[in-house]
Design goal:
Shape: globular
Radius of gyration: 19 Å
Distance between the termini: 24 Å
Largest sheet: 8 strands, mixed
CATH superfamily: P-loop containing nucleotide triphosphate hydrolases
Strand content: 15-25%
Number of domains: 1
Bound molecules: magnesium ion, zinc ion
Number of helices: 10
CATH class: Alpha Beta
Order of helices and strands: EHEEEEHEHEHEHEEHHEHHEH
């Protein structure tokens, strides 16, 4: 499939999916299909789109529609034997550059796919387009985050056969992606040395939700006067649960550790 492939028709919600490589030949079953009648009825009965699950002696937490779709995505990914990673950062922290290198290096041994979100343009999807890696671009229009419904449609648009690692490059934003579970198993938050060392203090929810924090562009830290020790201290304070990897996609420093981490998630096929 070439990068000029025809985008799918716009989704009802207004976002658009463009499978740039590895487009699905026939639609996958069950991922973006209608929800069950019970869940649909419960959702429409609730003004805020919540589903209240009750039993005799117990009120379970309300589940938002996104959470239901995210759980379906997670089950679908697990059932296919692939691990999904949700990459979140401010714009310009180096998500796409890191994924380019990851597809060229790690992606040669372990089949990867990418779903990449931006408000407009297929630029990142085109940068990531590789014959050996299915890639779909999600253009969200005005929405500043990806949600689980977008991921379901985009995942159905590409052929996931043999894929072991699915990267989701979220829209550049450190705020609302924290609230949208996409059904990923691993959330990766990037902080680059071109940003402030205090970003984790300013945007704690996303850092607190991270399984992994990547400190990126470490090759230019000294030139920029970036205090790496302070940034690491801030990350450790806000996100003690997260594994921290420091790397530079440009110099290659730290990439082996990132690939080792990915390998630990996805056995080589
Ligand atoms: Mg990008
Ligand atoms: Zn948003």
């Amino acid at each position: 499939m070439n990068p000029e492939s025809t985008p799918l028709a716009p989704a009802p919600e207004g976002y658009r999916i463009n499978p740039l490589s590895g487009a699905a030949v026939s639609a996958a079953r069950g991922l973006a299909g209608p929800l069950s009648a019970e869940i649909t009825a419960a959702l429409s009965a609730s003004p805020r789109g919540e589903v209240s699950v009750r039993s005799a002696d117990l009120n379970l937490p309300l589940l938002e529609k996104n959470d239901i779709l995210a759980e379906r995505n997670r089950g679908y990914f697990l059932g296919r034997g692939l691990v999904a990673l949700n990459l979140v950062s401010s714009p310009g922290a180096g998500k796409t550059t890191l994924l380019e290198h990851t597809l060229d290096d790690f992606g040669r041994q372990t089949k990867c796919a990418v779903l990449v979100g931006d408000l407009e343009t297929d630029n990142d999807g085109r940068r990531l387009h590789r014959p050996h890696a299915p890639v779909a671009q999600i253009t969200t229009g005005t929405v500043c985050h990806l949600d689980a419904g977008m991921i379901a449609r985009a995942a159905e648009s590409i052929n996931l056969d043999g894929v072991k690692v699915l990267f989701i490059e979220n829209v550049g934003n450190l705020v609302c992606p924290a609230s949208f579970d996409l059904g990923e198993q691993v959330r990766v938050v990037l902080l680059s040395t071109t940003e402030g060392e205090d970003k984790p203090l300013k945007y704690p929810p996303i850092f607190k939700s991270a399984h992994v924090v990547l400190l990126t562009k470490i090759d230019v830290a000294d030139a920029l006067g970036f205090d790496r020790a302070l940034a690491v201290e801030n990350i450790r304070r806000i996100a003690p649960q997260a594994r921290l990897i420091q790397l530079s996609a440009r110099s290659g420093e730290g990439l082996p550790e990132w690939y080792d981490f990915l390998r630990s998630l996805a056995p080589r096929s």
